[in-house]
Design a protein that fits this description.
Radius of gyration: 22 Å
Strand content: 15-25%
Number of strands: 20
Structural class: alpha/beta
Largest sheet: 8 strands, parallel, barrel
Helix content: 25-40%
């Protein structure tokens, strides 16, 4: 029986109708307030075995049940905290932990491109990520390394490591050595954070290597982008006012022919910045898959305001306009294995409950068209009471999505977020209401790592005798010479494709065409470098 009586949760009419129509089996981090910035969540190797709950002779539901575990407080910093975390997750029948190992340019681990965290709560020499992986895998729970993509520091006291990106490429540097995000009015901090500009080619390369280094050195089941976008602190609905790093601006002018300093709402400038984020996601995904093709690449994506009806509507959404995050393209092009919408809405506020369902419906439509990319609704359990969180799980399941995730383990309901109760008081209650008799997670569920046999990907790079490396249109041609896919090079001249028809293909850039080749499954095919005049 539940440890405390859960108030009856009446199904809304739309939920009940959807539940009757939806299949019984499912297929396969947003603002604290809707007008405020996002809260902080923010040669191929032999594939390793998925951390999947043990199966029985009875069919087990395939459903991602996730829990975000942030590093802004206790949760994964000591062996004792990790013991408790894994036991709690197992009791809830959670099968994926989105564990924050990259907070701000650091790592809660000992072996990564980022320096080890200065957090005094982590015992000397202790490797939280390694310990979490060992303990979670022993219970059949996956660990996805969640890394804040752009924020790198927020304290007036600098990091201790000289190699930390803030020390090496922050306030004390000039010219191309400076990677910091700049607002159109010269502001250098988004809230308390200094951030990296994805339009700076060296900053983008560093970000890519953060994720790859974790995959190379740890048996993680996945990596998760967070805050992979331009910052908040913009007018509601846009335009985005960030991206004015001097090197990024120089690139923009050279690649587009623009002159002067663009206004925030300039459509060419907005499209260019949006493309830089997309390039970063694509190149990181390709690099991760080149190391371990069965590691899941996923992103915690923005769902500000009302949900769109279709992809055309998405291009006009607050997500696209306000923070320049085109996650619909990432899904369509196959850059992600899992899209975790940060569908952070209050169930007890009518407008937000409607928005929650609208974004779920959009995710369901994306899943129908792109069935290889799982769609997960991330719920703000910290903004809701427990009946509200249960309702949102039911709504997510009724919508036909691939699963649900809750933010966060440290703040598991609105009472804890308000400081009126503690996590230790609430977790047993939440566990009973999720996995107890009659709870949505009463039975176990499985979630698998991506099948490497389904991976076909192409990666390449150009050199130029003159002109720019970035902003070049790259076309993928089939045997008949038809264009079957296109993309743009990033600031390092890199490009790639992760979804295209079977058969022999060629790559063409600025009139230069590669030899034809056939990408095979289970690997990322590397195209020989194309030298442009």
């Amino acid at each position: 029986m539940p440890l405390f009586p859960l108030r009856p949760v009446p199904l809304r009419r739309s939920t009940l109708t959807s539940a009757l129509l939806a299949p019984l089996l499912l297929a396969g981090c947003g603002p604290a307030l809707e007008t405020l910035p996002t809260p902080e969540l923010s040669g191929a190797a032999v594939p390793t075995q998925s951390a999947t709950p043990p199966t029985s002779s009875r069919a087990v539901r395939k459903e991602l049940r996730g829990l975000w575990v942030d590093a802004f407080g206790p949760g994964l910093k000591t062996p004792q905290e990790i013991d408790t975390l894994v036991a709690d997750a197992a009791a809830m029948n959670v099968n994926v932990l989105f564990a924050q190992v990259g907070r701000r340019g650091d790592c809660y681990c000992n072996n990564a491109a980022m320096p080890r965290t200065d957090d005094p709560a982590v015992p000397a020499g202790f490797d939280p990520l390694a310990d979490l992986i060992a303990k979670a895998h022993a219970r059949g729970i996956q660990v996805h390394a969640w890394i804040i993509t752009t924020a790198i520091w927020n304290s007036v006291t600098p990091p201790t490591s000289p190699a930390h990106a803030f020390n090496a490429h922050g306030l004390s540097t000039t010219g191309r050595d400076n990677w910091l995000m700049v607002k159109n009015d010269g502001t250098l901090r988004g809230g308390a954070d200094w951030l990296l500009d994805p339009g700076h080619p060296d900053a983008a390369e560093y970000i890519r290597n953060m994720y790859v280094s974790v995959v190379r050195n740890y048996d993680v089941d996945g990596v998760q982008f967070d805050r992979v976008r331009y910052p908040d602190y913009n007018p509601v609905g846009g335009p985005n006012t960030w991206g004015y790093n001097a090197t990024a601006l120089e690139r923009y002018r050279a690649e587009t022919g623009a002159t002067g300093t663009p206004e925030p709402g300039d459509p060419v400038w907005s499209a260019w910045r949006t493309q830089q984020v997309t390039n970063l996601v694509r190149e990181t995904a390709l690099a991760v898959k080149a190391v371990k093709p069965d590691v899941s690449v996923n992103a915690a994506t923005i769902t500000y305001g009302a949900g769109p009806a279709d992809e055309a509507g998405f291009t006009q959404s607050r997500t696209a306009k306000e923070v320049l995050q085109d996650w619909a393209t990432w899904v369509r092009e196959g850059y992600l294995d899992v899209n975790v919408m940060m569908n952070y809405k209050r169930e007890h506020v009518a407008d937000q409950a409607l928005w929650f369902e609208q974004w779920n419906a959009f995710g369901a439509r994306m899943l129908e068209v792109n069935p290889e990319v799982a769609q997960v609704s991330g719920s703000a359990i910290y903004l809701n009471d427990q009946p509200g969180s249960v309702q949102q799980i039911l709504d997510t399941r009724a919508a036909g999505l691939s699963g649900w995730a809750g933010y966060s383990y440290r703040t598991p309901d609105a009472d804890v977020n308000a400081g009126t109760r503690t996590k230790e008081q609430v977790i047993p209650e939440l566990t009973a209401n999720l996995s107890g008799v009659g709870g949505p997670f009463e039975g176990s569920a499985r979630w698998d790592r991506p099948n490497p046999a389904k991976l076909r990907a192409v990666s390449g790079q150009i050199t130029v005798a003159s002109g720019q490396l970035g902003g070049r249109t790259v076309e993928l041609l089939n045997e008949q010479g038809e264009v079957v896919a296109s993309t743009q090079t990033d600031g390092q001249g890199r490009y790639g494709f992760m979804r295209f028809p079977y058969g022999r293909v060629q790559v063409r850039v600025a009139g230069v065409t590669s030899r034809d080749f056939t990408p095979l499954p289970r690997a990322v095919y590397t195209v020989p470098v194309l030298a442009l005049p």
